[in-house]
């Protein structure tokens, strides 16, 4: 994991712990809503995480991109599926979203490895 991604993870975990320690009712409600939103129902968790990846690209939230790419991978999403979610974000966000997509690709390389990128490049050439 790159130093930047490690720092984002550390900051996210620290903020989460601090808000829980403060017993923030708003943060607790957010956590409950998040759990309900990503639960398997008509759409499986993986699909919801892919949707969140695209939204994260559009809103240019690096911590969100990292979290949702990791969660999508953990839910079984392939590199190609995450890439398509990033591409939907690019389409919805236009030019500025291409900047966010660069960060998303770095996270994807960290999560899936350079081999997945190389394999995707090979498929694109075929």
Describe the 3D structure.
By secondary structure, this protein is mostly helical. The chain has one domain (3-125): AhpD-like (Up-down Bundle). It has 7 helices and no strands. It has helices at residues 3-21, 25-37, 45-59, 62-74, 79-93, 95-112, 114-125. Helix 3 runs antiparallel to helix 4 and helix 6 (95-112) crosses helix 7 (114-125). The protein is globular and about 55 Å long. The model has no long low-confidence stretch (mean pLDDT 94).
- What is the total tally of β strands? 0
CATH topology term: AhpD-like
Q: Helix share of residues?
A: over 70%
**Number of H- or I-type helical stretches:** 7
The total number of structural domains is 1
Order of H and E elements: HHHHHHH
Give the SSE layout.
Elements lengths: L2 H19 L3 H13 L7 H15 L2 H13 L4 H15 L1 H18 L1 H12 L1
List the main descriptive attributes of the protein structure presented here:
single chain; 126 residues; mainly alpha; AhpD-like; globular
What is shown here, in short?
This protein has 126 residues and is an all-alpha fold.
